[in-house]
From TrEMBL:
Ranges for domain HicB-like antitoxin of toxin-antitoxin system: 11-59
Organism: bioreactor metagenome
Name the UniProt record assigns to this protein: HicB-like antitoxin of toxin-antitoxin system domain-containing protein
Pfam entry (one): HicB_lk_antitox
PANTHER family, per the entry: ANTITOXIN HICB (PTHR34504)
Length: 82
């Protein structure tokens, strides 16, 4: 019996560090992070990591996830003094 592939729609968080490297994370899977010199490279790399996460957690992947969105909040802080 042939099983059809399911499609997951996963949220990806993209950040850029002080060295202009793009860091990407998939919050659906614990420890699912990667990076690249460009956004495209980072997204290609995170797909490989997601494949590994899905293989490791295959019994937990339901395919019924629902992406709600990300929010940005503003907080104030006192910088450390030298």
């Amino acid at each position: 019996m042939k099983t059809e592939n399911k499609v997951l729609h996963l949220p990806i968080l993209v950040e850029q560090d002080e060295d202009n490297i793009y860091i990407v994370s998939c919050p659906v899977f614990k420890g699912c992070h990667s990076y690249g010199k460009t956004v495209e490279e980072a997204l290609t790399n995170i797909k490989e990591v997601i494949d590994i996460c899905i293989e490791e957690e295959k019994d937990k992947v339901s395919g019924t996830n629902r992406f709600v969105g990300f929010r940005e909040i503003q907080v104030s802080y006192k910088p450390a003094t030298a």
